[in-house]
Amino acid sequence: MPPIEANNKAHKTFKKTIARSFRMVQMFEHGRVRRGRRIQIKQPDILSAAMVIAVAGMGAFFTSRAVDAASKKISSKSQLHDGFIDLLQKAGVNEIYLLSIIKNDRPIRSIRNQLDKHFSMRVTQSFEAINNI
After folding, report:
1. Which residues contact 63 (CB under 8 A, 6 or more apart)?
2. Distance, CA of 57 to CA of 21 (rounded, Å)
3. Could you read off the pLDDT of 13-46 as tens digits, one per residue?
4. pLDDT tens digits, residue range 52-62?
5. Predicted TM-score (pTM) of this structure
6. How far apart are the C-alpha atoms of 110 and 94, rounded to whole Å?
7. What span, in angstroms and rounded, lies between the C-alpha atoms of 53 and 37?
């Protein structure tokens, strides 16, 4: 995967999301102190929310990076290895799909959207899955 560019939109969004999670943890820590003493909080919902936001942000960032790398690989004239072809097929990019987009003005964008849709269904972007972390 290519190095992360500091001005990459996905990277900037990820940094903002992680900063938000850290602020939520700081709010939790601030709320645990009453009259100079720490209090026990039985259900730290704010910590769970911070974790969910951080994991979802990380998943979105990695998805964006993977789709970017895949798009560049497809756009290049180099040969695709079997593992990459398997990934494309799992994402629904098979012969029938390719024939349906062959006359599109932007077929790479169509494949990119298909990959993005496939990755967005993975665990790190499913609130039901990460809610139990």
Report:
1. 116, 119, 120, 122, 124, 125
2. 10
3. 888 888 988 888 888 777 766 667 776 766 677 7
4. 888 888 888 88
5. 0.64
6. 12
7. 29
